[in-house]
Write a structure and sequence with these properties.
Blueprint: E1 3-9, H1 13-27, H2 37-46, E2 49-55, H3 64-72, E3 79-84, H4 92-101, E4 106-109, H5 111-114, H6 121-130, E5 135-138, H7 154-163, E6 168-171, H8 180-186, E7 193-195, H9 205-215, E8 220-221, H10 231-239
Parallel strand pairs: 1-2, 2-3, 3-4, 4-5, 5-6, 6-7, 7-8
Length: about 240
């Protein structure tokens, strides 16, 4: 069996430590991984993962090209590269064309880190430009902010896929990080892919099995969310599902 880890992150070596520190503070957890590309490849190999999909998010428009250049320079055959975009970036269409020319097949959007609302008008303009050109992984859900102020609730994700059925969308974290009851009401069972990243730390295998069965296993992807979690542990959790 060839395992693809659909949801993994890594950072340039010079900023990896700072990035890990920020993640630990934001999510109030301890992270045992280093966060570099080399460590991602090593831990994936140890877990017998065939390939990892590498994601990175530009937290502001100025970072878009630099982040995409770093992603484009990754040459490991074990890595599938996804790019980034930001609604405030000046020439979105030009950058999307460039990403296609570089062989980038997907995008990662993280509303909470990039500070935009999933249903904002600027995001709707971005979705129009993305169309069906890329597979798009959305971070969905975040208990750090009050629900009414959250940029990425499952309810908002459901509205996006209703308004943009052409989007090839994946909702991370089984449809809503630490918002699984809301995900069950708004996302589960709809025509959208989900992934299993950063789920098993918070809910039981029984509850995860319920959600996955309700949604349909053919639309659920394995994701470790490295460096947040250890890939080998996440594979074990998936294999222990009902």
């Amino acid at each position: 069996m060839k395992i693809i880890d659909f949801h993994a992150h890594a950072f340039p070596r010079k900023v990896a430590t700072k990035a890990i520190d920020r993640l630990e503070i934001h999510y109030n957890i301890e992270i045992e991984n280093v966060g570099t590309l080399e460590h991602l490849v090593t831990t994936a190999s140890q877990a017998d993962i065939h390939r990892s999909v590498l994601h990175a998010s530009a937290t502001n428009a100025r970072q878009v090209e630099a982040v995409n250049n770093w992603i484009a320079d990754v040459t490991s055959p074990r890595i599938i590269r996804f790019g980034t975009i930001h609604p405030e970036y000046e020439d979105i269409e030009k950058e999307l064309i460039r990403l296609k020319s570089l062989g980038i097949k997907g995008l990662k959007l993280h509303p909470d880190f990039q500070q935009f609302d999933l249903t904002d008008q600027k995001m709707y303009e971005l979705y129009e430009k993305i169309g069906d050109q890329f597979l798009v992984l959305f971070h969905v859900g975040d208990d750090v902010y009050p629900t009414e102020d959250n940029y990425s609730t499952p309810q908002k994700m459901a509205q996006v896929i209703k308004d943009f059925p052409q989007l090839n969308a994946v909702a991370g974290h089984l449809g809503g990080y630490r918002m699984w009851d809301e995900a069950e009401k708004n996302i589960i069972g709809h025509d959208i892919y989900l992934d299993t990243s950063s789920v098993f730390r918070y809910i039981s295998l029984e509850r995860a099995s319920e959600l996955i069965k309700a949604h349909g296993t053919d639309k659920v992807l394995f994701g470790s969310d490295y460096p947040m979690e250890v890939p080998a542990k996440e594979i074990k959790n998936v294999l222990n599902l009902d």
